[in-house]
Amino acid sequence: MTAPVGTCCVVLHTHLPWLAHHGAWPVGEEWLHQAWATAYLPVVEVLDRMAAEGRTDLLTLGVTPVLAAQLDDAYVLEEFHTWLGFWQVRAEGLAGRDPGPYEYAAATHARELFESRWRHGASPVLRSLVDAGAIELLGGPATHPFQPLLDERVARFGLAVGLDDAQLRLGHRPEGIWAPECAYRPGLEELYAAAGVQRFLVDGPTLLGVGASPADAWTVGGTDVVAFGRDLEVTYRVWSPRKGYPGGPWYRDFHTFDHGSGFRPARVTSSRTPPQEKAPYDPGRAAAAAADDARDFVNTVRRRLTDLASSRGGRPGLVVVAYDTELFGHWWHEGPAFLEAVLRLLPEAGVRLTTLRGAVAAGHVAGAVSPGPGSWGSGKDWRVWGGPQVADVVAENARLQKRLLDAVGAHRSPGVRRSDLDQLVRDALLALSSDWAFMVSKDSAAGYARDRFDGHLAAFESLAKAVDAGRGARLAATQRQTDGPFGHLDARLL
Prior knowledge:
Layout: E1 6-14, H1 29-52, E2 59-63, H2 65-71, H3 74-93, H4 100-118, H5 122-131, E3 135-139, H6 152-170, E4 176-177, H7 188-195, E5 199-202, H8 204-208, E6 217-220, E7 226-229, H9 232-238, H10 283-311, E8 317-324, H11 335-348, E9 351-354, H12 356-361, E10 365-369, H13 383-386, H14 391-411, H15 419-431, H16 434-441, H17 446-468, H18 472-480
Parallel strand pairs: 1-2, 1-8, 1-9, 2-3, 3-4, 4-5, 5-7, 6-10
Antiparallel strand pairs: 6-7
Helix pairs in contact: 1-4, 1-11, 2-6, 3-4, 10-11, 14-15, 14-17, 15-17, 15-18, 16-17, 17-18
């Protein structure tokens, strides 16, 4: 084919909240270890393999600063290495019974990958992919807050901390960001423009609400900042709130455990099959299903782009599909194999595979829009992070921000950097993470989320009182032992 039928951008959003030193099972450090072992390692292995073949502009990868900080943290690296060793030993103990041999091979490979590629953290790994042009890296605000509900000054500062963090770790300052929760309010584009951000994502309905198609990119408001919208019709082919490929009968079932070993021995079988009746997992049949679904997905993308070109007088369209990285391997065991097949098959099907930056260069910016509020959450509005179930969280966050700004304003000395004020800001940013409200609204480990939110609030309040009393330095040093990401953070810039 002499010209592509259109463009597809695959965007992966890699994020977990700050988990180091905050519990182990089931949603503390174990959450991070599982996602790292089963998603981050294999997804990067796919990208490494394709980059070694000279392939470029494979996908756009968002890595939140709070996760990047953990993937480089010396304590977390040591704990993860230990966890991988225990995984290998537990799998070896299964000996000849299912899924022992398969699990042991996976655990051994993960440990070898970590020791050969990741032992010094994620930054060298990601930087090599960026330098090779294999990916475009997206940054974001430091702790993944729900930006529309933030004070403008706190939002501006959190974004600057996050972008600075990526620059320090990777030698690249991201030109694009993953807007947390794809959340938007009018005016955010001006904050982005001031920070040097050129691109960000919203959900498709945010654009459709003002008559703009996600089949194009759009400059927002009176700025040159470009918004991309998820194509939900294609995106949901893989995963939606109710269906998608990972629910196929041959895939490994995420929710069924052998409680003696902690491993997952069953396949999905059907959505109606009770756990004790699910059929054993068959890796060969699962691999074949992943290959079939990859071909179906590529056909869906091509059909979508062909239809768009036909309806637009031949003008090529754009399909942006975006997912949590953790879907590929952690939630969907066969996800990395599916992803690699898709990345290889799309160009063969006459589809331009590129990054968000590449889509701009290919001419997919259609004009200017001024969207209304939106997100990728339930109802495509703000209810998950600002609704009745988390009204107390919203109120406490507003109070915390005012207290923070007052304290920094009262105690800041322009010529002197103060470790207690830096830690006070750090405590506030960790409390403002959007994860806590999401987990409460969705009743997903809600107790853990509330404990974490209350804990960060309490740490902030105790340090704020110590700062007021002129005794903040010692307490700040203690708190930083457990909650100390972003060593470059400077409260004077708030």
